[in-house]
Amino acid sequence: MRLLHRYLAKEILLPFAAGLLFLTQILLATQLLAQADVLFGSGVSLVDVGAVVLYLLPYFLGYVLPIAFLLGAVLGVGRLAEDREVVALGAAGFSPAFLVPVPLAIGVAVAGLGLWLSLDVVPRSLDAARLRLNEIVKRNVMNDVRPGTFYDQIPGYTLYAERVHGGRWGNVLISDRSDPAAPVLALARAGGLEPVGAGEEMRLVLDDGEVHREQVDADEYVLATFRRADVVLGLGTALSDRNAVSRTGRDDLAGLQARVAEARAKGDAAAARRAEGSLHRRIASPLAVIPFALLAVPLGASRRAGRAFGVGATFLVVVAHYLLLRSGEVMAQRGVLPAPLALQLPTLVLSAIALALIALQVRRGTGAVR
Questions:
Q1: List of residues 6+ apart from 93 with CB closer than 8 A
Q2: Which of 77, 103, 136 is nearest to 309 (CA)?
Q3: Residue of 23, 30, 35, 156 with fewest CB within 10 Å of its CB?
């Protein structure tokens, strides 16, 4: 019996690993292409690209683990059915339910891995990816200033340099419109941009120049000279628009629980439900592996269905799970159902369907897989 279980586990793990690798590569390639203007900019090295890929890997693994597992389990069981090995097991007195513990045991392990990734690893890796991409964007901004060209990608500022060499500028003009009521024009013999910390700020450094400021409402004009001037600029949308990771939720378990408690303390029930829904969605997504494991035998153990049916059934089950998850999320946000129950609807509904199909298969015996 143990030999048969190990044999089935091997048949499941091989297509599972192949599907995991294939789907992860697709998602990573899509993300790299979406961020091509940042990751392939003038201030980027291969080490930067490799680090970003490494940081994003846990995030994408959390998405593809349930799908790859379902595909691998269905194809693994389906391979046994196509070769009539499931029929042979039935002739030896084993019901189709004999196959269920193997994908279920693997599924529990994969679900545990998914929960660890979702609640612990992914928030930290996304935060590291955000910081690395912030650095890359800043370096790109520093290198994007071209001699004899106006640069206006920093909100509220326009930069012009007659000469650019090694990140330093010569004969610089800066137009500061961050305060429309008091526009500022700065002229300097030399200058440049320097990164500041890990946030959205950069430091503008100017040497040997003068500042012209006009107070529109008061009809005043101010002129001042300087030997050295430092101004901290907030890149704002210039950074967030380029850094897609900055718009991705990255709160860890403690952060989400704190958001729920803070919203409840303020009496903001809607915000509390949204935060609680986000928390339980992170739990619900990895737990999708459990009903997928139960569905593997009913979907894969029919020789007549073939592998094409297994792939198609995998797609339909994933779509059904997504629709149920979205419905549960909406019900949780509207307060129709508690978030722990609403976000577990896909697991409960698909598990009930899987158990019903297994019971039907057991009742029909070997005739279900001929």
A1: none
A2: 77
A3: 30
Interior angle at CA 320, CA 316 and CA 321, nearest 5? 120
Sign of CA dihedral 77, 82, 85, 87: positive
CB of 345 closer than 8 Å to CB of 70 = no
Considering only CA atoms, which of 237, 78, 64 is closest in space to residue 152?
A: 237
The tens digit of pLDDT for each residue in 191-223 reads 887 776 655 567 788 899 898 887 666 667 778
CB-CB contact of 65 with 289 (8 Å): yes
> Phi and psi at residue 198, in whole multiples of 5°?
-110, 5
Whether the pTM exceeds 0.85: the reply is no
Give the pLDDT band (50/70/90) at residue 301.
confident
Cβ–Cβ under 8 Å, residues 223 and 212? yes
The candidate with the shortest Cα–Cα distance to 99, out of 358, 368, 370, 364, is 358
Per-residue pLDDT, 313 = 78
E-assigned strands of the chain? Answer: 157-165, 168-176, 184-195, 201-215, 220-234
Backbone angles phi, psi at 9, to 5 degrees: -60, -40
Helices (H), 35-117: 36-39, 46-82, 85-91, 101-116
